[in-house]
Amino acid sequence: MNTAPGEVVLRTEHLGRRVGEKWIVQDISLEIYRGELFGLVGPSGSGKSSLLRLLNRLDEPTSGTVFLEDQDYRQIAPQELRRRVGMVTQRPFLFPGDVAANLRFGPAQRGATLPDSEIASLLERVGLPSFAARNVPNLSGGEQQRVSLARALANRPEILLLDEPTSALDEHAKSGIEELVRNLVSANGYTFVLVTHDRGQARRVCDRVALIEAGRLVRQGTPAEVLDA
Amino acid sequence: MLKSLFHSQIALGFAQAAIASVLALLVILLARRRNIHLESDTAVALLRGIVQIVVVGSLLVLLLKAPRWSSVFLLAGMIIAAGSISAKRAQNIPGARKVSTYSIAAGAGLVTAVMTWAGVIDTAITSLIPVGSMIIANAMNTNGLALNRFRSEVLAHAGEIETALALGAAPEKTIASYTEASIHSSLIPAIDNLRSLGIVWIPGLMTGMLLSGADPLYAAIYQFVVIAMILASSGLTSLLSTMMIRAYVFSPAEQLVLRESA
Predict the structure, then answer these.
(1) Shortest alpha-carbon distance between residue B169 and chain A (Å)
(2) Of A91, A93, A109, the CB nearest to B168
(3) In a domain, B262, yes or no
(4) B61 shares its domain with B98
(5) How many domains does chain A have?
(6) Contact B169 A60 (CB under 8 A)
(7) Which residues of B touch A97 (CB under 8 A)?
(8) Mean of pLDDT values over B2-9
């Protein structure tokens, strides 16, 4: 695992979001380094998924901001920002059609065509070689989540947000995704932010973690420093 | 039977309205036995309906003597009311009232204006108000159906919409199929009316023309003209409202703001 801090890709500064009278995310300042797998850990309802949605501006912060490579993300056009900060959700929400069409969706939004060779390479990377022509309703839950991951990677994001990607999967599919996510970071140099309520999962795959409780950052550091404290 | 009991036409009208309302209420009671509760909505609608139509009828009596241009104000009032009524079908979407009013004004207003200019609708109050109100009422229904369906589609597919946004899609692209479905379903009644014209139903306007001594063939053709105008104004209203409502479904930062909890 990667433990040496490198270049900061994404930085949050006093980030907060209030819904009605309640602060669901409050005063969070974090730094995510290039090539690391950073975990946001906390119990259900602690605000970690809400924090994740602020990182690609799917929701608007009430206070503070996010810097993507030192640029305030409010100065980046939302579509460009979301290409650079990708996201994989709890449920894959694949689009109707085949696997290849799903992978082509992101690049097509900016007028680019994803070559077949790149589709094959992405599918190889997520452990689904020769799945390009498969129809998505025929895929298992684990396979759908892998397609969702490949679809997000097809946009070549600088950082990828993963919101509880294994919570809807059985144990076997879950360990497969964990291994895949870890390998993508270690072998391919991707930068991932993983939201999980599962402390065991955070220990198994993350380089560093932040513990979130009641919308606040409690501690951050290596999994051992944060979760065993 | 009623005609022998009532000598005044007004009293006869109220008695007929009472019987029609009782029939409607009986159906509501039947629905209640199946745990479908429409009582308060229907009672209020029936009461509102009779009061409103009596007020309009009384106004028409006065307007018959008013100058022709005064019908413009009455039609404008109808458009404002129609906007407010159909906006309720789009609950939770901020701006629905404004969008509905503008869309109905553009859709029904444009078609009524063009057809009046072309001489298809007579400028006499007795012609412009009934035909104009039919166009506005149908535009209102179509708008309500379109926004209601649009709202349901967006709420039911929030995950898919946000997934597409997260992949860098433009907001209008993420809801294109739901917009199309909403426009299509909202126009089904207007299209079916046109399809079934003369076979399943002979609308009231034609009946009225026949009773007042118009040539039956002309009355029939004119009926087609009215239903075609209704389709045109409903279509335009639906297209405009689903296009304008987009600005209220997404924030300027391209975030989906219409959600179940909103």
Answers:
(1) 5
(2) A109
(3) no
(4) no
(5) 1
(6) no
(7) none
(8) 81
CB contact, 8 Å: B165 with chain A? Answer: yes
pLDDT band at B247 (very low <50, low <70, confident <90, very high): confident
pLDDT tens by residue, B38-84: 888 888 989 999 998 888 788 778 777 788 888 888 899 999 999 99
B199 plus B179 within the same structural domain: yes
Is B257 domain-assigned? Answer: no
Say yes or no: B216 and B130 in one domain. Answer: yes
Note the pLDDT tens digit of each residue in A50-105.
Answer: 999 999 999 999 999 999 999 999 999 999 999 999 999 999 999 999 999 999 99
Q: Which residue has the tokens 């797998």?
A: A37
Q: Is A21 domain-assigned?
A: yes
Q: Hey, is the C-beta of B256 within 8 angstroms of any chain A C-beta?
A: yes
pTM assigned to the model: 0.83
The boundaries of the domain holding residue B237 are 67-249
Q: For chain B, what is the domain count?
A: 2
A107 found inside a domain = no
Residues B26-38 as b/e (b if ≥16 CB within 10 A, e otherwise) read: eebeeeeeeeeee
